[in-house]
Amino acid sequence: MKPAIHIKEIYTNPTSFHIYYSHTGKNKYRDIPQELLRLVELKAENYEFSAKKNEYINLERVSEKGIEHIVVLGIGEEAVQDLNALRNQTMMAIQLARKVKAKEIAVHITNHTKGIQQIIEGIYMGDYSFDMFKGKESQKKHPHINNVYIVTSETTEIKKLITKGTNSATALLLARDLVNTPASHLHPEVLVEYAREIEKKSKGAITVTILDENECRKLGMGAFLGVAQGSERKPAFIILHYKGNGNKKFAFVGKSITFDSGGLSLKPGDSMMDMKIDMAGGAAVLGVFDYLASEKPQISTFSDVYGVLPACENMPSGNAMKGNAMKPGDIVTALNGKTIEVLNTDAEGRLALADALVYAETVLKADYIIDMATLTGACMVALGNDLAGMFSSDDEFEKKYSVFAIQAGDDYWRMPLHSAYLTHMKSTIADLKNISSVRYGGAITAAIFLKEFVKKAKWMHIDIAGPAHSSKNGASGWGVLSVIYFLEQVTKV
Ligand code: BES
Ligand code: ZN
Ligand code: ZN
């Protein structure tokens, strides 16, 4: 259960866990009440606390008044509000609170209206753990926080921001839950159910269309269906739609392979272990639409916002007797008519995305497309676990998005769409092959392959194989917040 958030003008529950924020400079303790000031100052001496970003004081004691914990978070200079630091700092403090099994927390945000949304996100993120499949005992050992009191004045503006933060955090945590859920419990049909839930919750603001296998075949999505054909589970091509007030169309495409065994080009055991996460792109799309469903924000730049999830499993064969899986050497035809020689069935993401990108541009008429995909191990080799690899056909689009990615903490590094590498992707018997003839630069060759399926649209491809998930922390929800902020706040692209 997520903690319940309440607003309180004044909060003096003596046994709670208190969180304060503090800026560098003379006035750094202005939010700390008189009766606590001495204590905080004493403790701060040991820490040499100057309220710089990432500094904090963790005061554990039982005072005369019975307060158990006070955490003062340094968030740097007041003029430069770092929204990402504010969220991260809050998250860290909430994690401390959970560690000491605090049930009730007071978060004092007297002077921080601008970052309220991020503080709320940090609260939910700090309390998050994926325990859907854990027994009662282990849940008891790591109890969640029950109530969080936001100590601030109860204005309409603040209430709205708290709701907004709750909605964006809920969206992020939904994406995390989806990615953390194993393939035994999450397959294409389950993604369809989630999309339908979002549609229902939106009360008319979002419409969902599902194309089944036959409809995909009729349209000509041979690349996507090639990936799907080895699985007993039916594919689903999911489209979500939300209306804005602008004049450009935007599509958010997410790789949605609910399990990537590699297909007949089977992955070795160790590499297959985490492959339930291969729908993290699609999870980010559903997260964003979950936000649109509950917040229903005005979108001033785009007239239409689409989400596209080509969802299927990549399996060697659902029925070994039928032997119906795609085989290395097979040729499939994508929605734009291009033929692809599939030399490695483990390079399946680009096949599913090829059809989804063509669909977004030619059927949905998207002017702007972002695709997010756990696409290549090579991107992880290049950039590690913290950073996504970003490829863009349009500098301005990338620049606009980057502002929100920084605020969201969705860190990435831009990589080149080096078109000369297209020669490595040319087949002798088809238009393209799905793997490169050269071993190196795998993230780039994958991006160059995708580029063949986008014509005029301004496009960004983000390879999230690294940051989507870590074995220690599980799913991150990478991409949800940056796209939410971008859609709602970008003024011109
Ligand atoms: N889903 C994987 C990429 C991946 C690897 C994501 C590790 C997250 C963690 C993708 O479908 C894949 O298998 N890519 C191959 C491509 C290769 C065969 C050209 C890879 O990266 O090895
Ligand atoms: Zn694969
Ligand atoms: Zn994959």
Structural features, described:
With 493 residues, the chain is α/β, with parallel strands linked by helices. The chain has two domains: 4-154, Leucine Aminopeptidase, subunit E, domain 1; 180-489, Aminopeptidase, CATH 3.40.630.10. It has helices at residues 34-47, 83-99, 116-127, 136-141, 156-180, 188-201, 213-219, 222-228, 269-272, 280-295, 349-363, 377-383, 395-408, 442-451, 480-489, and strands at 4-8, 17-22, 56-60, 69-74, 104-108, 147-151, 206-211, 236-243, 248-254, 256-260, 302-314, 330-333, 339-342, 368-373, 388-392, 412-414, 432-433, 458-463, 469-470, 474-475. The strands form four sheets. Strands 7, 8, 9, 10, 11, 14, 15, 16 and 18 form a nine-stranded mixed sheet that branches. It has a six-stranded mixed sheet with strand order 1-6-5-2-4-3, sandwiched between helices. The chain has a three-stranded mixed sheet with strand order 12-13-17. Strand 12 (330-333) and strand 13 (339-342) form a beta hairpin. The radius of gyration is 24 Å and the shape is elongated. The mean pLDDT is 95. It binds ligand BES and zinc ion (ZN) (2 copies). Ligand BES binds at residues 260, 278, 344, 346-349, 374-378, 435, 442, 465.
